Amino acid sequence: MLTPNMHYADLKDSYLFAGISQKLSEYLEAHPGTHLYRMGIGDVSLPLCAEVIKALHEAVNDQASKENFHGYMPECGAPFLREKIALFYAGRGVRLSSDEVFISSGASDELGDILDLFDKSSSALVIEPAYPAYVDASVIAGRRIVRLASGKENGFLPAPDDGIEADILYICSPNNPTGAVFNREQLQAWVDYANRHGSVILFDAAYEAFIEEEGIPHSIFELEGARTCAIEICSLSKTAGFTGTRLGYTVIPKELERCGMNFNSMWVRNRTTKTNGVSYIIQKGGAAVFTPQGQRQIRENIQVYKKNAKILMEALDSIGIWYTGGKNAPYIWLKCPDGMGSWEFFDLLLNSIQVVGTPGEGFGVCGEGYFRFSTFGSPEDTKEAARRLLRLLGQK
Ligand code: PLP
Questions:
Q1: Residue ID of nearest Cα to ligand 1 atom 1
Q2: How do residues 217-243 score in pLDDT, each as one tens digit?
Q3: Which ligand 1 atom is at minimum distance from the Cα of 109?
Q4: Most Cβ neighbours (<10 Å): which of 111, 132, 228, 264?
Q5: Which ligand 1 atom sits closest to the C-alpha of 42?
Q6: What is the rounded distance in angstroms from the CA atom of residue 82 to the CA atom of residue 290?
Q7: Mean pLDDT in the chain?
Q8: How many domains does the chain have?
Q9: Ligand 1 within 6 A of 112 CB?
């Protein structure tokens, strides 16, 4: 009799988003037609920029002509896009060769697939509160999970401790859900830890484009020693609005080796076995992101989300609520007022001012008592949500 992957039985139900949507449908059933101010969404609300749309149209036309038609694409990515991304890194002072850049269908796909590179016995460190896919992908792969709780006392940016024993280290900066971002010294400490212990960092850089402060690393490869201990997983989802179009990239340096095995070569072997590449049309659209006009246009969109963050941060400042994030990330992570629990605060906001956020407890036990606002909503809704928050919590 076939044995299924029994680790699926170890997965916890994704009660967070299911719980939220159930509460929202109950509320709307009781209050039909009410407008909800959705500050919980992790999806972008602005369309793709003009430069990307133009490139997508041109690529569709290419597919209609015998001379320019493209069939299967190279499994690891089209050279035109891998080269553009390597040049983009060079502009930041990070030298990569284009065959260290692998084109993907997005960070979620890669975060799961990349685990193929490690033996089943290797453990995974997850810094909580965390993006739920880290735990779930590791559970499905049957790995031991080492949880490292973070909190207000360390700004949700814990330092490594040589007592921690883990092989794979998930680090997400700027972080979802906390919006916290590691500075150079803090990240260097993790790189040094990984090199000392022979661990490999899976650096999730999905929100790097939101960093605005000088001196904060956008890429782990800005740090000394990272080429021997890190893989960087990137996405155009939030950077350029590709959540529905699907495109990302992963950087695996050629120096990354353990037990005589080279991770870059292993990933080439993995990709050539498990995928036939990302579509030509989408990669053409992605290449437009890395042109000067594309960069200018995506920055304009990011500025809209950043203005939303500013509005929410100003409201929280004037109420006197503690929070992190918002400045270098599209998420604001706040302490629920008056010692309220995450779900209690969720109910209060929904029922009294129709504002919807995400209860922190859904991102790990240490998220209890915290709450996440996303800044991807519309400016109009964000302004009104901030006004309502001030009205509800401002006059004490
Ligand atoms: N990593 C983090 C931290 C995220 O928040 C998300 C999406 O919300 C992803 C990865 C997935 O990105 P993609 O759309 O590229 O799959």
A1: 206
A2: 999 999 999 999 999 999 999 999 999
A3: 16
A4: 111
A5: 8
A6: 11
A7: 96
A8: 2
A9: no
